[in-house]
Design brief:
There is one protein chain. This protein is an alpha/beta fold and 254 residues long. It folds into two domains: 69 residues; 158 residues, Rossmann fold (3-Layer(aba) Sandwich). A six-stranded mixed sheet has the order 2-3-1-4-5-6. It is elongated.
């Protein structure tokens, strides 16, 4: 054994093995993180639902009513109906609209990674990774924030599927820069649209000026990202959140 050890030469040390060259475990990290976030989100929502139900039930008992009677339905068997009108934004989860066309940077395929994780993944790449049909709606939250109060937003790409009362909940739209995107919207023109809804136009920072020529005439926020420097995506996502939250606050106090 002594003779063997004298002629041995190390091929790899501990550090070289741990480097794992030519292997990328980022997808594993993202999947693991997402599962943990989803678990925490569900637990948080269950706690909130329980507190709301308990609060309403206690209030009903104080007035000598049953839970159904407290909501005004008695024992008639009528199911509650939500009133989505009567507030400045509209009661319910706020809605963000994105284009369904692939030629825009932000779509329903990649909006969650961009707004929640601060990472831009091209739509064609993300679409190939997704299993099953394209979702009609995804939910996004501002994750990278110190605020304890986190608002959830619904992201949709089919304005034609919105009910009249749903439009009261629409707070933002990612624009293509084409007038036809707003065809059949319940507004007079893009001036009225961007007075009621904040608009965002996503572009690559080295794109020609012509690509944003039309949207510069509109009241929208132009957000630029790099084609290759993904570490800069977070700043762009934060800019979207900052402008969106400022707009929502202004509408709430209007």
């Amino acid at each position: 054994m002594t003779l063997i050890r004298t002629v041995e030469r190390p091929l790899k040390d501990r550090e070289a093995i741990l480097e794992c060259k030519n292997r990328d475990f980022y997808a594993v990290l993202v999947a693991s993180t997402r599962r943990e976030e989803e678990r925490q989100r569900m637990e948080s929502q269950q706690r909130k639902d329980g507190l709301v139900a308990k609060s309403r039930l206690m209030g009903a008992e104080d007035r000598g009513l049953g839970f159904g009677e407290e909501l005004g339905f008695g024992d008639s068997g009528i199911k509650p109906k939500l009133n989505l009108k009567g507030s400045k934004i509209g009661e319910g989860v706020p809605i963000i609209l994105v284009p369904s066309a692939f030629q825009t940077l932000i779509t329903i395929h990649n909006v969650k990674e961009f707004l929640e994780d601060g990472v831009f993944i091209p739509t064609d790449v993300k679409a190939k990774q997704m299993k099953g049909p394209k979702p009609d709606c995804v939910t996004v939250q501002k994750k990278f924030s110190r605020d304890r109060v986190v608002t959830a937003y619904e992201v949709r790409d089919k304005p034609s599927a919105l009910k009249p009362e749903d439009w009261d909940r629409v707070v933002a739209v990612f624009v293509l820069g084409k007038e036809w995107q707003f065809k059949d919207w319940p507004f007079k023109d893009h001036v009225e649209i961007f007075n009621r809804i904040i608009g965002f136009f996503m572009r690559f920072e080295d794109d020609s000026v012509e690509s944003a020529k039309i949207v510069k005439q509109w009241n929208v926020k132009i957000i630029s990202i790099s084609k290759n420097k993904r570490h800069q995506d977070r700043a762009a996502a934060l800019e979207v959140w900052e402008k969106l939250e400022d707009f929502v606050r202004s509408r709430s106090h209007a």
